[in-house]
Structure formats: C-alpha cells, structure tokens
Amino acid sequence: MFRQLQKKRAIALIVALTIGQISPAFAAPEDTLPDMGTSAASTLSIGQEMQMGDYYVRQLRGSAPLINDPLLGQYINALGMRLVSHASSVKTPFHFFLINNDEINAFAFFGGNVVLHSALFRYADNESQLASVMAHEISHVTQRHLARAMEDQKRSAPLTWVGALGSILLAMASPQAGMAALTGTLAGTRQGTISFTQQNEQEADRIGIQVLQRSGFDPQAMPTFLEKLLEQARYSTRPPEILLTHPLPESRLSDARNRANQMRPVVTQSTEAFWLAKARALGMYNSGRNQLTSDMLAEWAKGNVRQQRAAQYGRALLAMNASRYDEAQKLLQPLLSAEPNSVWYLDLATDIDLGQKKFAGAIARLQNARDLRASPVLQLNLANALLQGGRAQEAETLLNRYTFNHKEDSNGWDLLAQVEAALNHRDQELAARAESYALAGQLEQAIGLLSTASSLAKLGSQQQARYDARIDQLNRLQERFKPYTKR
C-alpha cells in the first residue's frame, strides 16, 4: 500500500465549518419534499453552493485529521456513488471523505461533500448499516437542507447569511462548541433551529431509506443502526456525538422502523471490500487503541468466506504494522495466490516488500498487475516503489501523468514533491508542494511557493510561464473565496 504521511493537525475552524447539505436534480415524486416555504434558491444558487463547497472542503483538508488512504477512499467513494446513482434530485458531483475520529458521526456540506468518521467501521455490523448512514447524508444533500436552514435563519434572526452559515455549520460539525455558539449568536432562535434540524432528520431518513433499498441494501439496516445508537446513549454518561448533530427522538426510530417494515425485504451480504475496509480502518486508524482485536479476528474466521479472508488480511496487516514482515508475508501469500489481482492484497504486498527492501520485486509485481492502468491505488503504489527503489525519473513520469488526471489527490502531489526533491528539481518540488497547500486552503502559502519556483525557472521559459499562470489562477480563487473568510 502507499502509506500516507498523516498530517495531524488539530480539528479547528473548519471541521467546525463542515456540516450542511446541498443540492439535487430531477426528483422522483416519492423523493420530493413538501414545500417548507422556500425553494432555498433565493438564498443560494447551485453555483454558489458548489463554490462554497470548494472553499470548505479545502479548509477540511487543512484542519481535520482526514484519512488520505487511497484504498479506503476508493471504497467509500465507490459505495457512496452506488447510492447516489439511485438517488433523485442530484445536481452536483459527490465526494466522500473519511476522518480519523473514534466518535460515531457523519455529516454533509456544500458541493456534495460527505464526511464519515472512522468509528462507523467499528459500529457498523454490515455494509447495509454503513450504507444507511451514507444514504441519510446523501439525502440531506439532495434535499438542500443547509440552504433551507440558512433561509430559515435569514427570516428569523437579524444576522448576515455568512454569520448564520457559520453558526449552523459549527453546531453540526462540533456539537458542544456549536451549541455554545448558537446560544450566544442566535440567542432566542436556538430552539427553532434545533426543531428545524429534527424535521430535516426525519426527511433524510424517509428519503434515505428509499435510496438504500433501491441500491440493493437491506432497508432494515437503518432502524437497526438507529436503535444501536439509542442503546449506546442509554448506557452512557455522554450520548454519541452523532446524536448531538442528528437528533434522534423515539418517534424518529419508530418512523424508520415502520417504513422499513412496509418495504420489500432485501437479502444481501456484505461485500468482501467492506470486510477488508473494516479490517484496514480498525487496524491502521485507531487513535492508538487496538480496535482490530484477536477476538474480532477469531469471530470473523468462523464466518463466511469473505469474513475469513478479512481475518487473514487483518492478521497480515497487524504483522506488517509491527514490522514483522516475514510473518506478514506468510499470512498474505495464500490470499494473494488466490486473488493475484486484488488491489487490497497487492497494496499490502507492496508495503511488505518495501519493508524488506525488496524494491525490484515490488516494482515488478505492480508493473505486471492487470489493472495498473485503471487503478489510481496501484499507480500510487508503483510511484512510491519506484521512488524507494532509486528510480525517481520513472516515478516522475508516472506522477506527472497521475497528478494531471487526479488534480485533487494530495497523495499524488506529496509523492511528486518527494520525487522532484530526489531529482534535485527545486522549482518543480516547490510547485508540487504548492498544489498540496492549495488543496488544504492555504492559498497564500501556495502562491509564495510558486513565486519562488518562478524565480528559479529559466527566464522566459515555458516552465516559468506555467508557474505564473498558476499564480494568477490562485489569485482569482482567493478573490472568489473572500466572502467566506469574513469573521
């Protein structure tokens, strides 16, 4: 696997600015909300929501402990797009992110951006339960709940729309801090805001459970997971964080259960990818606590074939993380022999090879992989293996193509910066680092790096012109983002 360099920055202003919901397209009758007094278009256009989404997702990258794991990112985005393909009123692209956080939560915000906490992998017993949370958040987006909330605040409180947005997003992303902000900022309108959110939750359940069933998942998973959250709240001194951002009265659970009971039952099994993702999330992103326990792996080993493979993969993963490379290789080899083209197994095999300094073997395996041309994960693995194996020139060629096709993947830019440093291409190294800064919302720093790169490039060269053109683009982006940076 291409092991990310995690940037552990505190969750600051931006996760505080992350929750909301956005907009959608051609609605099926059963997915259309009753008129709540606004279409939300008078507050925000779709174009404005897309622009705001771009701003806030950059801030999210810069401030939250995002898990930039290519494999997990690929999995949650594939699962999310399966659900989106069965949703109605979709007017924007969707993107799914994973945050390293042991609190159960999920949220959505402008631009079709949906964020999941890694704890969901611990608490979801099956793929349908995980999908039920995602379908709920997708429905917040397609029903434009954040824009509606902004319109409601605009009518009920003497606040600018920027102030209302900040308070609403803060309350949803950081519940305890958010409630304090609502108390001080919205004063007497707080209860109205909370009630509005409860109505949104019921609507997101209603639409989400339809999306869940149409996507081939078990609709009973939604009330089952909600019931699990309520049970946890009953026996805890502090309710799960998700219940602070997503109110769950008993009536909401009853309504979800009734709707599921009226739907055609769906018999489904969790995919192998779900179990492998669960093993990976728990084994690698656990805030210092081992959540992929021996008891859990033993239980999986007694399950179906998918679970048995995930148990074996989990053991190999834990061995690799502990630098027991020979043991990890022995555990992984039967899986790799049975499924030589599995991106999950190829990724782990690469990490084991690199840990053992077997660079040539890792490179050869990846270059011969059937799906290399179509798999961003394998391409990143190969670029990393080439770099570690002293073949930086080949890695540069691969990463120049990769970053052209995947401009919003910071993994590619970070690797390219390392490659350019190894080749002593100082201006190109700075330009690659600038792209990482820009993706994290640090536009001023990105412009500074590009200015230095331009000064290092040959006067009048195409390279210098490219850097200067990119500086102009980022300056224009700064201007577009100015309304959202006001305090």
Automatic annotation (TrEMBL):
Keywords of this entry: Hydrolase, Metal-binding, Metalloprotease, Periplasm, Protease, Repeat, Signal, TPR repeat, Zinc
EC identifiers of the protein: 3.4.-.-
GO MF annotations, alphabetized: metalloendopeptidase activity; zinc ion binding
Cofactor(s) annotated in UniProt: Zn(2+)
Positions with a binding annotation for Zn(2+): 136, 140, 201
Domain Peptidase M48: start-end pairs: 74-259
Swiss-Prot/TrEMBL GO biological process terms: proteolysis involved in protein catabolic process
Entry's cofactor comment: Binds 1 zinc ion per subunit.
Alphabetized Gene3D superfamilies for the sequence: Metalloproteases ('zincins'), catalytic domain, Tetratricopeptide repeat domain
Places the protein is found: Periplasm
Active site feature: 137, 205
Stretch forming the signal peptide: 1-27
Cellular component GO terms, alphabetical: membrane; periplasmic space
Physiological role: Functions as both a chaperone and a metalloprotease. Maintains the integrity of the outer membrane by promoting either the assembly or the elimination of outer membrane proteins, depending on their folding state.
Family listed: Belongs to the peptidase M48 family. BepA subfamily.
Name assigned to this protein: Beta-barrel assembly-enhancing protease
Organism of provenance: Intestinirhabdus alba
